[in-house]
């Protein structure tokens, strides 16, 4: 008779030893950054890191300085917190630091997409061709039409649209940007009512996935949540299946180009469906939350709202929205909004907190701006967290926690690009889109989406907070490191289309 108890006990000891021994024996080598393995074998600092990444890194920086290595779940991460030393990491002329492998492992886990060789370059090429220049103009036009469809309905402005309505500001912004973004990228059918219903259902399911996303990435879900994530993934693969594309008109050239590349490369339709899910999340996961913060800041700062409204009136002229009409204006106006540009940039500075990762392929020496040299070990991960080291640096951005709508404007109204630290001009004075090889390829379209939405809201709508004294909600600490931070709770607001008379 087999004694399963002792056998399982020995097995657990072996597994624990396999996981923990590398951490127990690792020591700081000469020229390596300060090493902080944390209180728990293998786990290291993962609990306080996940509880509040921002506060954890602030504590580690005060304890160890601008460069330090910490253990997180059996993996060693070296954080570089001095923005003047970012250059060599972002450029990486020696090619010892790799972003692509790390990204491919993440998208396989989260979206089920197995990236092929050259996919990263293909996405960048497609984005350069269709999300910039003339391609961006075409997509902006589609986005304006889809915003009209989502905000006004299939028949345009209806009678009674100037009645006050109340909603959650976060849900309102996220829902509208997601639905319009989805329809502009993945096209519509002849049945606009059905398109809106499908987009609404997709958003509902997307929010379920989005709420689980941070803990999913770190494998911290409960068993029922793992099951729910699997079901949601299958649902998205089905709803975004390439089998449905012949039924849809206006699928963006960006999506078409990438799917054609995958199809010609022999990628199966099932894997193309997973690719579509990945592109939907990448394109729509941050624009809604960012727009929420932008409108909330404007509502809380009347002088900023007045400045944006005056600019909107100037560039859109006396555009009026009559019955049964859609929003119509010259999209060239998007190039003439320096005040709104500054508002969006300031919103991103305050709300966007991505983490930039590079895996160390072979031992790498970083020479910092202070002339110190640090050796990064093969197999570790180098990480940058610009929100703390750049966005909240009072030397770069005085009074960094305050919203200043004109922070990115010069006194003459032109765009401000000169920011300094330690007397040196700093190139990366904000990094909401990442940088280097990991810079967001869709950043120009995302910026235009948010500008279009805010322009429409301030030009055509009356809006106000239900409680003008409601404070700006704190940020959800679970979202640090994942793009735009979402609020811990939303706020209520009222809105209506401005009367025609």
Q: What layout of secondary structure does this protein have?
A:
Elements: H1 4-25, E1 35-36, H2 46-51, H3 53-64, E2 67-72, E3 75-80, H4 86-91, E4 97-98, H5 100-111, H6 119-130, H7 133-152, E5 165-168, H8 169-186, H9 192-217, H10 223-239, H11 253-264, H12 269-284, H13 287-300, H14 302-316, H15 338-351, E6 356-360, E7 364-367, E8 373-376, E9 381-384, H16 386-391, E10 420-421, E11 424-425, H17 443-460, E12 461-465, E13 492-497
Parallel strand pairs: 1-2, 3-9
Antiparallel strand pairs: 2-3, 4-6, 5-13, 6-9, 7-8, 10-11, 12-13
Keywords: Endoplasmic reticulum, Heme, Iron, Lipid biosynthesis, Lipid metabolism, Membrane, Metal-binding, Transmembrane, Transmembrane helix
GO molecular function: heme binding; iron ion binding; sterol 12-alpha-hydroxylase activity
Cofactor: heme
Query: Could you tell me the mean pLDDT?
Result: 92
Please state the structural category: alpha+beta
Quantity of strands, as a count: 13
- Please give the radius of gyration in angstroms: 24 Å
Q: Would you give the CATH topology of the domain at 119-353 and 393-497?
A: Cytochrome p450
Strand content range: 5-15%
Q: What is the oligomer described by this structure?
A: single chain
* Biggest sheet: strand arrangement: 1-2-3-9-6-4
Low-confidence stretches: 1-20
- Using the alpha-carbon principal axes, give the shape: globular
GO cellular component, one term: endoplasmic reticulum membrane
Main location: endoplasmic reticulum
GO molecular function, one term: iron ion binding
Organism: Tupaia chinensis (Chinese tree shrew)
């Amino acid at each position: 008779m087999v004694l399963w108890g002792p056998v399982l006990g020995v097995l657990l000891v072996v597994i624990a030893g396999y996981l923990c021994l590398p951490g127990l024996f690792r020591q700081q080598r000469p020229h390596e950054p300060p090493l902080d393995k944390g209180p728990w074998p293998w786990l290291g600092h993962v609990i306080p890191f996940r509880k509040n990444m921002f506060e954890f890194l602030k504590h580690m920086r005060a304890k160890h300085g601008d460069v330090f290595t910490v253990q997180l779940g059996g993996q060693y991460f070296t954080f570089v917190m001095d923005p003047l030393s970012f250059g060599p990491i972002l450029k990486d002329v020696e090619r010892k630091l790799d972003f692509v492998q790390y990204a491919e492992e993440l998208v396989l886990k989260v979206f089920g997409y197995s990236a092929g060789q050259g996919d990263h370059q293909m996405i960048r090429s497609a984005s350069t061709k269709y999300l910039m220049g003339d391609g961006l103009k075409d997509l902006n036009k589609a986005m304006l039409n889809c915003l009209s469809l989502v905000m006004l309905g299939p028949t345009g402005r209806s009678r009674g649209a100037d009645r006050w309505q109340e909603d959650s500001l976060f849900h309102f912004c996220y829902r509208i940007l997601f639905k319009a973004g989805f329809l502009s990228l993945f096209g519509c059918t002849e049945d606009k009512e059905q398109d809106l219903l499908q987009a609404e259902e997709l958003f509902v399911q997307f929010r379920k996935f989005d709420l689980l996303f941070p803990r999913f990435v770190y494998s911290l879900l409960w068993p029922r949540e793992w099951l729910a994530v699997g079901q949601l993934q299958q649902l998205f693969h089905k709803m975004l299946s390439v089998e449905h594309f012949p039924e849809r008109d206006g699928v963006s050239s960006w999506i078409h180009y990438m799917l054609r590349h995958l199809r010609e490369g022999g990628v199966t339709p099932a894997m193309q469906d997973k690719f579509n899910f990945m592109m939907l999340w990448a394109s729509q996961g941050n624009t809604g939350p960012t727009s929420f913060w932008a409108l909330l800041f404007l509502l809380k700062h009347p002088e900023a709202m007045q400045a944006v409204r005056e600019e909107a009136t100037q560039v859109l002229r006396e555009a009026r929205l009559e019955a049964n009409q859609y929003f119509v204006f010259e999209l060239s106006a998007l190039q003439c909004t320096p005040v709104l540009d500054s508002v969006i940039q300031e919103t991103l500075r305050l709300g966007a907190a991505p983490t930039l990762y590079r895996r160390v392929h072979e031992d790498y020496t970083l020479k910092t701006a202070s002339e110190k040299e640090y050796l990064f070990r093969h197999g570790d991960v180098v990480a940058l967290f610009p929100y703390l080291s750049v966005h909240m640096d009072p030397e770069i951005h005085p009074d960094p926690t305050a919203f200043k709508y004109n922070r990115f404007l010069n006194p003459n109204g032109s765009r401000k690009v000169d920011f300094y630290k330690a007397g040196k001009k700093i190139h990366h004075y904000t990094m909401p889109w990442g940088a280097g090889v990991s810079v967001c390829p869709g950043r120009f379209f995302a910026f235009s989406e948010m500008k279009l939405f805010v322009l429409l809201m301030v030009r055509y709508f009356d809006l106000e907070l239900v409680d003008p004294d409601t404070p700006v909600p704190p940020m959800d600490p679970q979202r640090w490191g994942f793009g735009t931070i979402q609020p811990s709770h939303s706020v209520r607001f009222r809105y209506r289309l401005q009367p025609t008379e």
